[in-house]
User: What shape does this take?
Amino acid sequence: MSFLDQVIDKASGLFGQHGDGKESLLGAIVQLVNNPQTGGIEGFIQSFDKAGLGEIVRSWLSSGENLPISAAQIESVIGSEQIQNLASQLGIDPDQASAKLAEYLPQVIDKLSPDGHLPSGENLVAQSLELLKGKLFG
Assistant: This one.
C-alpha cells in the first residue's frame, strides 16, 4: 500500500467511509485532483480553464463564496470515462458520481486552499487530512 493509499484510508475512516480508501468519495476526489497523468493539481485546475470554467474553479480557491458547478459541467471537464471509473469505484451510477463531484469538489478544493494556493504531492494528502478533519462530510 502506497503512502497516498495509507493516508486516504485514514481519511476515509475520519469521514465514516469504509473499505480500502479508494472506494470512498474523499479518496476518489483526492486521487482525481492529484492524478499525475493529468498534471496533478495544476493540470486539474487548468482543465477547468480550458473548458471555459476558470472563473468557477478560481472561486473555490479564493476566500469568497464558491460558485456552483453542475454535474454536466463536471463531466465536460473530467470526461465521461473518468466519471465512469469513479462511479465504478464508488459503486454508484455515473449520474450520481457527477452529482456528488459537483456537490463536494468545490468544498474539497476550497478547504485545501485556505490561502488561495493548493498544496502538491504528499503535501496535498497531509493537508487534506488536517484541513478536512471535522470540516467536511459531517
Observations:
- Residues 1-8, 11-23 have pLDDT under 50 and may be disordered.
- The chain has eight helices and no strands.
